[in-house]
Specification:
This is Glutamate synthase. This protein folds into three domains: 6-130, Alpha-helical ferredoxin (Fumarate Reductase Iron-sulfur Protein, Chain B, domain 2, Orthogonal Bundle); 146-240 and 401-467, FAD/NAD(P)-binding domain; 244-398, FAD/NAD(P)-binding domain. Helix content is 33%, strand content 16%. The chain contains 19 helices and 16 strands. The chain has helices at residues 6-9, 21-24, 37-44, 54-58, 65-74, 77-85, 91-97, 101-104, 117-130, 154-165, 182-185, 194-207, 223-229, 258-269, 291-304, 339-342, 408-412, 440-443, 448-467; strands spanning 146-150, 169-174, 210-213, 232-235, 241-242, 255-257, 284-288, 308-313, 346-349, 351-358, 364-375, 378-381, 387-390, 393-396, 400-402, 435-437. Strand 8, helix 16 (339-342) and strand 9 form a beta-alpha-beta unit. The two termini are 28 Å apart. Residues 97-98, 150-156, 173-176, 181-182, 186-187, 191, 216-218, 236-238, 240, 262, 292-293, 296, 407-408, 439-441, 446-449, 451 line the site of flavin-adenine dinucleotide (FAD). Flavin-adenine dinucleotide binds at residues 97-98, 150-156, 173-176, 181-182, 186-187, 191, 216-218, 236-238, 240, 262, 292-293, 296, 407-408, 439-441, 446-449, 451.
Length: 485
């Protein structure tokens, strides 16, 4: 156990500071400063090593949190990273980007601030990289079996790493020019610098995973060709079809999906020239929809020098305390302030867009909105509350509807479920034998931690399909839903 008196002697929850807003919005670097190591270790020492560690079930990966908290508290980074990697291929992604449902399930959190689990996680992996403890783990012998993984987001990468280490020959097909999925072109540099991703990809390449970038499966190679050339296929395509808003004026210039704006911003932030880049510079920006995607649009707009940034949310503003219907250890709906919100702009809740108003050049100039109240669970406009706000760039961040049904899915003939996601059985296999699915393509729009858990579990399904049995871990079943997020 970490310090038996830790939670009594260190009652404060301490996290690293965010860099000052005026400084950080002038660059694209990560927003957090480094935390003093002694302070981090004292925080790890607050873990009570509970008899029933609810944090395990809060974490979709089943991370062995009290075990690595103990080692981190002692400064034994070698054992800490061994325990952390036992359940999580990529703690450097989750340690930066996870909403940490483990922390809202922490037992200490019942009557004191929860242990800073996510911060201990990211510090452990960063120490491990610094101390040379993260090395390639190639398989001892090859199975002679081949697997094609389509899509290189966290689900595809986790499946590929597990399967490569199990001895299979794995090729990851990615239609973008570089691997990473939303980790590379969705999530901005200020949340996770891409060098963090590249460092892990180097390890994977050294282990033997092959990356085929710039390959749009369904176009550059057909589903049938994949089936013929590989013994198994994992579809980790993500949920890339965005929700749209069909209000009058939708056709005006200056109205874009978040995922048209963010990838360009990410490329430009890394010094690439982007032809006809959608820019927030000098504009009144309105982001429709909250969540991570909305926050990333806000932070990117601030860094591009927007004149103003307004974010609209149809739901009412959540409270700052747990609602009684969402008791510990669930993940509550709370008013949260992401780093991007701290950087400026206005958040307007319980409103709906009724019209986009154009200028003489056919570009959006304003957005008309109305307040809404929820009657019988449906947002209903409140009469007399209509108003206009300036909007020269409108970004939709209203979620995603599922994977693209055409192309490779059609060619392979996999069944979709009622939510347009790829249907799978308890082993993550689709309706087509030998074709598996992991991540947002099967689960629907979700989180990185779930994508990694699905990639790991699907890898166990593939391994068993190829060899008759598998010792790879299966952290979750396809039907598992969060206790929490
Ligand atoms: C802007 C944004 C910010 C987010 N921020 C967070 C966050 O902070 N924390 C968090 O936990 N979650 C966040 N999420 C959600 C998280 O990123 C996703 O849940 C996660 O990336 C899903 O992983 P995945 O591997 O299933 O799919 P993806 O990451 O979407 O990867 C799918 C990959 O498949 C490729 N692909 C698709 N079709 C083909 C094809 N036919 N041929 C070849 N390749 C193909 C795509 O190009 C893509 O690279 C965010 C999502 C968005 C959109
Ligand atoms: S992956 Fe997320 S839920 Fe799991 S321990 Fe890390 S921060 Fe917590």
């Amino acid at each position: 156990m970490a310090d038996p008196q830790g939670f009594l002697n260190t009652r404060e929850r301490e996290l690293p500071a965010r860099r000052p807003v005026p400084v950080r919005i002038r660059d694209w670097k990560e927003v957090y400063e480094e935390q003093e190591l002694g302070q981090l270790q004292r925080q790890a020492g607050r873990c009570m090593d509970c008899g029933i560690p609810f944090c395990h079930s809060g974490c979709p990966l089943g991370n062995l949190i009290p075990e690595w908290n103990n080692f981190a508290w002692k400064g034994d980074w070698s054992d800490a990273i061994e325990r952390l990697h036992a359940t999580n291929n990529f703690p450097e992604f989750t340690g930066r980007l996870c909403p940490a449902p483990c922390e809202t399930a922490c037992v200490l959190g019942i009557n004191q601030p929860a242990v800073t689990i996510k911060q201990v996680e990211v510090t452990t992996i960063e120490r491990a990289f610094e101390e040379g403890l993260v090395t390639p783990l190639p398989p001892e012998r090859l199975s002679g079996k081949t697997v094609a993984v389509v899509g290189s987001g966290p689900a595809g990468l986790a499946a590929a790493q597990q399967l490569t280490r199990a001895g299979h020959t794995v090729a990851v097909f990615e239609r973008a020019d570089k691997p990473g999925g939303l980790l590379r072109y969705g999530i901005p540099e200020f949340k996770m610098e891409k060098s963090v991703l590249d460092r892990r990809l180097e390890q994977m390449s050294a282990e033997g995973t092959r990356f085929r970038n710039g390959m749009n499966v369904g176009v550059d190679i057909t589903g049938r060709q994949l089936r013929d050339r590989y013994d198994a296929v994992v579809l980790a395509l993500g949920a890339t079809v965005p929700r749209d808003l069909d209000a009058p004026g939708r056709q005006l210039g200056g109205i874009h999906q978040a995922m048209d704006f963010l990838p360009q911003g990410n490329r430009a932030a890394l010094g690439e020239h982007v032809e006809d880049q959608i820019l927030a510079t000098g504009k009144h920006v309105v982001v429709i929809g909250g969540g991570d995607t909305g926050a990333d649009c806000i932070g990117t707009s601030h860094r591009q020098g927007a004149a103003s940034v307004t974010s609209l949310e149809i739901m009412p503003q959540p409270g700052e305390d747990r609602p009684s219907g969402q008791p510990w250890p669930t993940y509550p709906m709370l008013y949260r302030v992401a780093s991007a919100h701290e950087e400026g702009g206005e958040r307007i809740y319980a409103v709906s867009t009724t019209e986009f108003v154009g200028d003489d050049d056919g570009n959006v100039a304003a957005l008309r909105l109305t307040e809404v109240e929820f009657l019988d669970g449906r947002p209903t406009p409140k009469p007399g509350t209509e108003r206009e706000i300036p909007a020269q760039l409108v970004l939709f961040a209203m979620g995603f509807l599922g994977p693209q049904g055409s192309g490779v899915l059609e060619q392979l003939g996999v069944d979709l479920d009622e939510r347009s996601n790829v249907r799978r059985d308890k082993n993550f296999m689709s309706s087509v034998p030998g074709v598996f699915v992991a991540g947002d393509a099967g689960r629907g729009q979700s989180l990185i931690v779930w994508a990694i858990a699905e990639g790991r579990a699907a890898a166990a399904g593939v391994d068993a399909w190829l060899t008759g049995s598998s010792s790879l871990p299966r952290p979750i079943a396809p039907t598992d839903r969060p206790l929490t997020v």
